[in-house]
Design brief:
About 0% of the residues lie in helices and about 45% in strands. The protein contains no helices and nine strands. The strands form two sheets. Strands 1, 3, 6, 7 and 9 form a five-stranded antiparallel β-sheet that branches. Strands 2-8-4-5 form a four-stranded antiparallel β-sheet, with no helix packed on it.
Protein backbone atom coordinates (compact mmCIF):
# COMPACT_ATOMS: atom_id res chain seq x y z
CA UNK A 1 0.00 0.00 0.00
CA UNK A 2 1.49 3.37 -0.92
CA UNK A 3 1.98 5.75 1.98
CA UNK A 4 0.31 9.17 1.84
CA UNK A 5 1.92 11.88 3.98
CA UNK A 6 -0.21 13.08 6.92
CA UNK A 7 -2.67 10.20 6.55
CA UNK A 8 -3.24 7.65 9.28
CA UNK A 9 -3.19 3.99 8.28
CA UNK A 10 -5.33 1.79 10.49
CA UNK A 11 -5.79 -1.98 10.61
CA UNK A 12 -8.25 -3.05 7.92
CA UNK A 13 -8.87 -6.80 8.25
CA UNK A 14 -9.42 -8.51 11.64
CA UNK A 15 -7.52 -11.79 11.81
CA UNK A 16 -6.91 -14.72 14.10
CA UNK A 17 -4.69 -17.75 13.68
CA UNK A 18 -3.26 -20.62 15.70
CA UNK A 19 -0.64 -23.34 15.67
CA UNK A 20 0.43 -26.29 17.81
CA UNK A 21 3.93 -26.99 19.15
CA UNK A 22 4.79 -30.38 20.63
CA UNK A 23 8.55 -30.91 20.19
CA UNK A 24 11.15 -29.73 22.70
CA UNK A 25 13.15 -26.68 21.67
CA UNK A 26 16.32 -25.70 23.51
CA UNK A 27 17.82 -23.79 20.56
CA UNK A 28 17.56 -20.03 20.97
CA UNK A 29 19.40 -19.37 17.72
CA UNK A 30 17.83 -18.85 14.31
CA UNK A 31 16.61 -22.44 13.76
CA UNK A 32 14.36 -23.54 16.66
CA UNK A 33 13.31 -27.20 16.80
CA UNK A 34 9.63 -27.90 16.18
CA UNK A 35 8.57 -24.26 15.90
CA UNK A 36 4.97 -24.03 14.66
CA UNK A 37 3.75 -21.24 12.42
CA UNK A 38 1.12 -19.35 14.42
CA UNK A 39 0.51 -16.15 12.41
CA UNK A 40 1.49 -14.59 9.08
CA UNK A 41 1.06 -10.86 8.50
CA UNK A 42 -0.53 -9.64 5.28
CA UNK A 43 1.24 -7.76 2.48
CA UNK A 44 1.04 -4.44 4.38
CA UNK A 45 1.97 -5.79 7.82
CA UNK A 46 -0.16 -6.48 10.89
CA UNK A 47 -0.98 -5.27 14.38
CA UNK A 48 -1.15 -8.15 16.91
CA UNK A 49 -3.16 -7.43 20.05
CA UNK A 50 -3.20 -10.84 21.75
CA UNK A 51 -1.02 -13.96 21.91
CA UNK A 52 -1.99 -16.79 24.26
CA UNK A 53 -1.08 -20.44 24.78
CA UNK A 54 -2.94 -23.37 26.36
CA UNK A 55 -2.09 -27.05 26.61
CA UNK A 56 -4.00 -29.98 25.13
CA UNK A 57 -2.95 -32.36 27.92
CA UNK A 58 -1.42 -32.45 31.40
CA UNK A 59 2.13 -31.18 31.42
CA UNK A 60 5.10 -30.26 33.53
CA UNK A 61 6.08 -26.60 33.57
CA UNK A 62 7.51 -25.49 30.23
CA UNK A 63 8.68 -22.33 28.54
CA UNK A 64 6.45 -21.01 25.74
CA UNK A 65 8.61 -19.24 23.16
CA UNK A 66 7.89 -16.83 20.31
CA UNK A 67 10.09 -16.37 17.25
CA UNK A 68 9.87 -13.76 14.46
CA UNK A 69 10.59 -14.48 10.81
CA UNK A 70 11.19 -10.96 9.46
CA UNK A 71 11.32 -11.79 5.76
CA UNK A 72 8.58 -14.44 5.74
CA UNK A 73 10.76 -17.16 4.19
CA UNK A 74 11.00 -19.33 7.32
CA UNK A 75 14.79 -19.67 7.09
CA UNK A 76 15.68 -17.31 9.98
CA UNK A 77 13.48 -17.28 13.07
CA UNK A 78 14.61 -14.90 15.82
CA UNK A 79 13.72 -15.61 19.46
CA UNK A 80 12.12 -12.53 21.04
CA UNK A 81 9.68 -13.47 23.82
CA UNK A 82 8.89 -16.20 26.32
CA UNK A 83 6.50 -16.97 29.15
CA UNK A 84 6.36 -19.85 31.59
CA UNK A 85 3.42 -22.24 31.38
CA UNK A 86 3.04 -23.75 34.87
CA UNK A 87 2.50 -27.45 35.43
CA UNK A 88 -1.14 -28.39 35.05
CA UNK A 89 -3.29 -31.51 35.24
CA UNK A 90 -5.94 -31.24 32.56
CA UNK A 91 -9.33 -32.73 33.38
CA UNK A 92 -12.99 -31.97 32.65
CA UNK A 93 -13.33 -30.53 36.16
CA UNK A 94 -10.22 -28.32 36.14
CA UNK A 95 -9.89 -25.05 34.23
CA UNK A 96 -6.51 -23.93 33.00
CA UNK A 97 -5.42 -20.34 32.70
CA UNK A 98 -4.06 -19.34 29.31
CA UNK A 99 -0.49 -18.06 29.19
CA UNK A 100 -0.77 -14.45 27.99
CA UNK A 101 2.20 -12.79 26.27
CA UNK A 102 0.93 -9.34 27.27
CA UNK A 103 0.06 -7.71 23.92
CA UNK A 104 -3.05 -5.52 23.81
CA UNK A 105 -4.70 -2.62 21.99
CA UNK A 106 -2.53 -0.23 23.97
CA UNK A 107 0.65 -2.33 23.68
CA UNK A 108 0.48 -4.16 20.33
CA UNK A 109 3.11 -6.23 18.54
CA UNK A 110 3.72 -4.72 15.10
CA UNK A 111 4.69 -7.01 12.24
CA UNK A 112 6.17 -6.00 8.91
CA UNK A 113 4.83 -7.00 5.51
CA UNK A 114 4.71 -10.80 5.26
CA UNK A 115 6.40 -11.28 8.64
CA UNK A 116 5.57 -14.54 10.43
CA UNK A 117 5.32 -15.59 14.08
CA UNK A 118 6.30 -19.05 15.28
CA UNK A 119 5.60 -20.71 18.64
CA UNK A 120 7.81 -23.30 20.32
CA UNK A 121 8.02 -24.98 23.74
CA UNK A 122 10.93 -25.90 25.99
CA UNK A 123 9.89 -29.49 26.74
CA UNK A 124 8.13 -32.07 24.59
CA UNK A 125 4.42 -32.12 25.41
CA UNK A 126 1.21 -33.50 23.91
CA UNK A 127 0.68 -30.12 22.30
CA UNK A 128 0.58 -26.48 23.26
CA UNK A 129 -1.81 -24.38 21.21
CA UNK A 130 -0.73 -20.80 20.45
CA UNK A 131 -3.55 -18.41 19.47
CA UNK A 132 -2.97 -14.99 17.88
CA UNK A 133 -5.45 -12.15 17.36
CA UNK A 134 -4.90 -8.92 15.49
CA UNK A 135 -5.51 -7.23 12.17
CA UNK A 136 -3.78 -6.71 8.85
CA UNK A 137 -3.07 -3.21 7.58
Amino acid sequence: MPVTPNSIITPQVPRSASGVASLANAAYGDAPVGAALVFAAGPNGARVTRVTAVTRASLTATECQLFRDHDGTGTVKRFFASRLMPAVTVSPSTAQAAVDFGYSDSAPLLLGAGEKLYGAIGQAQAGVVFCVEGADY
